[in-house]
Structure formats: C-alpha cells, structure tokens
C-alpha cells in the first residue's frame, strides 16, 4: 500500500520538474531555428532594427537584407554584404545572455561581428538594438 502512495507523488514531482525545464528551454530557444530577415520597411526609429521570419521572396525587392539563422547548437548563418554585390552567407557561433537579452555573434575566427539587444520578440517579429 505504501508503494502505491509514492508512485503518484513521484509522477507529480517529475511532471513539475520537467515542466520547469521546458518553460526555461522555451524562453532560451524562442528565436532559434528560424530565418530572420531584415524588414527595414517597418523601421520606426534609427535605433531599432526590425526582423521578420520568412523567405527573402516574401519581401519587396532590395539591394541587401541582413539575414540570420540561429541554430540550437549555438551555430549561426548570417549574410555578408560584399563590396562587389556578390553577397553571401557565412557561418559562425552565437551566445545569448538571457538576463541582459544580449545576442553576441562571432565569425569563424571567434571575433565578435554583431552584438544585439532584444527589445521585442514574437513568433513573427524580432526587434533589436545593434551594439547596445
């Protein structure tokens, strides 16, 4: 009889423990595995950059749009503006300070190439301040 009492208790504690981890993981990964494309048409201030999910074809024609794709393994692909208009994607790594809401992006030589502060984030929109 005593064993039956402990089984539901262990089950409930496991659910609580797993539920806490999932909430924390959801916060940490909410901008990952999504392609973020600069949407400068929506920019309302010089300070805040606006990014949307989707495909480049979903946006009006433009000479260049910054693109980021954050992977769950702390890898990132980002677009590079080339002087000869031959823009390309390159790989690097990223880290996120959840408390400060700061994303640092590093190139393949471990040099910091971008630093952003997340101002607002939804499933479709990511608003950032560059070099806060």
Automatic annotation (TrEMBL):
Top-level taxon of the source organism: Bacteria
The name this protein goes by in its record: Lipocalin-like domain-containing protein
Organism of origin: Salinimicrobium catena
């Amino acid at each position: 009889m005593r064993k039956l009492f402990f089984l539901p208790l262990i089950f409930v504690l496991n659910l609580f423990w797993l539920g806490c981890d999932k909430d924390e993981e959801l916060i940490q990964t909410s901008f990952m595995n999504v392609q973020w494309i600069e949407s400068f048409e929506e920019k309302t201030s010089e300070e805040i950059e606006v990014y949307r999910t989707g495909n480049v074809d979903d946006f009006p024609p433009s000479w260049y749009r910054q693109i980021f794709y954050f992977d769950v393994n702390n890898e990132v692909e980002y677009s590079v503006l080339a002087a000869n208009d031959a823009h390309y994607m390159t790989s690097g790594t990223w880290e996120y300070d959840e408390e400060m809401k700061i994303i640092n992006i590093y190139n393949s030589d471990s040099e910091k190439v971008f630093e952003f502060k997340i101002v607002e984030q939804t499933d479709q929109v990511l608003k950032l301040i560059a070099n806060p």
